[in-house]
Design a protein that fits this description.
single chain, 4-stranded antiparallel β-sheet, 3 helices, 31% strand
């Protein structure tokens, strides 16, 4: 499945919620409608998400196919999360996430 990330954003939530909230707009090759994945994490490690059509409803089997990829393909989900982290203010990224991202970047060189 060819997934294109159109736009992403991630922001730090202050007290009382505390955590991170974001959204990523996705297009999937061959699918009629784009999607939005909303994200939430307390510490930036374990993510809750909600997948829905961005503009108009599309085919149920298409969104279910994307849901399966997100659930089963850790690399694809990590790529989506990384796109969101890329938009977060550097000072808001927790040190443990900065280290993980640096290590992942150096292993790709």
């Amino acid at each position: 499945m060819n997934i294109t990330i159109r736009r992403a954003q991630l922001a730090k939530l202050e007290e009382p919620e505390k955590g991170f909230v974001g959204k990523v707009e996705l297009e999937v090759e061959g699918h009629a409608e784009p999607y939005e994945l909303t994200l939430f994490s307390k510490r930036g490690t374990d993510w809750d998400y909600s997948l829905h059509f961005l503009n108009e409803s599309g085919k149920e089997e298409e969104i279910e196919a994307l849901e399966t990829v997100i659930e089963e393909n850790d690399d694809e989900f990590d790529r989506i999360i990384d796109a969101a982290w890329d938009t977060c203010a550097a000072e808001d990224v927790p040190p443990h996430i900065q280290r993980e991202r640096e290590e992942a970047g150096s292993s790709n060189d």
